[in-house]
Design brief:
By secondary structure, the chain is mostly beta strands. 0% of the residues lie in helices and 20% in strands. Bound molecules: zinc ion (ZN). Zinc ion binds at residues 8, 10-11, 13, 29, 31-32, 34.
């Protein structure tokens, strides 16, 4: 389940909540108990997985000759 950031429109408190995709209503503010909150889209929650797994398969290769079998360079 994704964690969304909310900001209370009454007192301005920022808080995070676990919400379901079907849950579109405002969540209750833990500070003042107000139900009037709006979701804040934080940019750092959109991480890409690129750059992971590129080194797989080449770890056993020889660093000197870039071959899997090192009969030439030892
Ligand atoms: Zn509040």
């Amino acid at each position: 389940m994704p964690i969304y950031e909310f900001r209370c429109s009454k007192c301005g408190e920022m808080f995070e909540e676990l919400v379901r995709a079907s849950d579109k209503g405002g969540v209750e503010c833990p500070e003042c108990g107000s139900g009037h909150s709006e979701r804040v889209i934080s940019s750092f929650s959109f991480k890409s997985d690129s750059g992971v797994g590129t080194a797989a398969g080449s770890s056993s290769a020889c660093g000197a000759c870039s071959k899997s079998s090192c009969s030439s360079c030892g």
